[in-house]
Design a protein that fits this description.
Largest sheet: 12 strands, mixed
Radius of gyration: 18 Å
Strand content: over 45%
Mean pLDDT: 78
Order of helices and strands: HEEEEEEHEEEHHHEHEE
Helix content: 10-25%
Length: 266
């Protein structure tokens, strides 16, 4: 389920000068770390706010990202309460474990095109290498790598809003996944945010992606987790956009429902 939650947000892109609220629907297949399955999700973007709804059986999990307020809200349809995270403080904590100056990223056109859902998509290969260290400890240094193809439809509507949101999130050092998972795997969480930004800057929506993520000890032979990291294998997730719409979204969509109990988290 964690794998699917990471990947559901993989709805990337954009590049037209027009501003518009966005609704993006997608399906995601994830596998790895003992988890596998398919989820359906819907992403809503309005200015500096984004909401992600992920459907799992009869339950919908919601994550709301408010960049200006530096708040993240997480709740599901089965409870009348929401967890609230102070993202300014949390991003500072994550930065202690991730060295962005040593990150390497490439997004390279592969020269291929194909039709997806009636749209022409250009092919790219994405590669990210992200050094990280659990708890900021040099003894627990490792490398997170992410590779795979992305098929991007250029000139998709709402480009400016989508690109603006992910650029701002990256500059603020945000992670765009459940903070509880990010604490355990900060490099993976930060690599995901960078992936969103890279694909968005390509100038369209990634209608299909198929990414492989893995962790290794790299050149750190003293890492006691080295052998375990090698056995964890690869986390894979493939996402397909099924629909993109523009149209005004209400402000109350980007906050927990009235009457919900709010639980402050650290």
């Amino acid at each position: 389920m964690k794998v699917a939650a990471w990947a559901t947000a993989l709805i990337l892109g954009l590049a037209s000068p027009a501003f518009a609220d966005l609704t993006i629907k997608q399906t995601t297949n994830g596998k790895g770390l003992g988890f596998s399955g398919q989820t359906n999700g819907t992403t809503y973007i309005k200015g500096s706010k984004m909401r992600l709804d992920t459907v799992d059986g009869d339950k919908t999990q919601t994550m709301i990202f408010d960049l200006d307020a530096q708040k993240m809200y997480i709740f599901d349809s089965k409870k009348k309460e929401a967890d609230v995270w102070d993202m300014a403080a949390f991003s500072g904590e994550i930065s202690k474990s991730v060295d962005m100056s040593k990150m390497k990223t490439t997004l390279t056109p592969n020269g291929q095109t194909k039709d997806i859902a009636g749209q022409k998509a250009d092919g790219y290969t994405l590669e990210i290498s992200m050094p990280t260290a659990l708890g900021g400890s040099a003894d627990l240094a490792m490398v997170v790598t992410m590779t795979g193809p992305a098929w991007i439809v250029k000139g998709a509507p709402g480009t400016a809003d989508y690109l603006g949101f992910y650029k701002a999130a990256s500059e603020k050092g945000w992670i765009l996944s459940d903070p509880r998972s990010a604490k355990a795997s900060p490099g993976q969480a930060r690599a995901m945010t960078e992936m969103y930004r890279q694909l968005a800057e390509a100038g369209g929506i990634a209608y299909e992606t198929d990414q492989q993520m893995k962790m290794s000890a790299g050149s750190n032979t003293s890492n006691p987790l080295g052998g375990l990291l090698g056995k964890l294998g690869t986390v894979s997730f493939a996402s397909t956009v099924t629909g993109v719409e523009t149209g005004s979204l209400t402000d109350d969509l980007f906050a927990p429902p009235a009457g919900y109990k709010l639980n402050a988290k650290k």
